[in-house]
Amino acid sequence: METKKSEIGAYFTKIETTMQLVKDKLDNVMAENSDYPKVKEVIEQFITGTLHKIVESAKEAANGIKDASGNLGDIEKAADASKGAEATSVRNLLKGIKTIVDVVLKPNEGDGLKDVTKSLDDDKKKI
């Protein structure tokens, strides 16, 4: 079964909407707890350092591909502008995904590829 580009766009739109709801609720918590500066500071850091970046990245990914038709794997690189626009939409999708991954993993907090290949390397040593 092929994944439609519009389905991917809808998925990232849902992420954007959900993260925006969480951000709005945390804004309310922050307003209600304005007497507690430490709580306010931690929530502000989380909102600006994490949620805001995820919202913007999901929006970029969704906008890059949601109106595109066809399957995700059918992107072709061509000289004419109509096909080039599809390559641009995939580039925007990937840029949005990369930013989300960077925000979630944060620098120096792990290497997803290393974690995956580590068990493979361990298995090779056992043979």
Automatic annotation (TrEMBL):
Pfam families the UniProt entry points to: Lipoprotein_2 (PF00921)
UniProt name for this protein: Variable large protein
Principal location class: membrane
Membrane topology label: Lipid-anchor
Annotated TM spans: none
Signal sequence annotation: none
Cited InterPro entries: Borrelia_lipo (IPR000680)
Keywords: Cell outer membrane, Lipoprotein, Membrane, Palmitate, Plasmid, Signal
GO cellular component: cell outer membrane
Source organism: Borrelia crocidurae (strain Achema)
Function: The Vlp and Vsp proteins are antigenically distinct proteins, only one vlp or vsp gene is transcriptionally active at any one time. Switching between these genes is a mechanism of host immune response evasion.
Subcellular location: Cell outer membrane
Coiled coil: none
Top-level division of the source organism's lineage: Bacteria
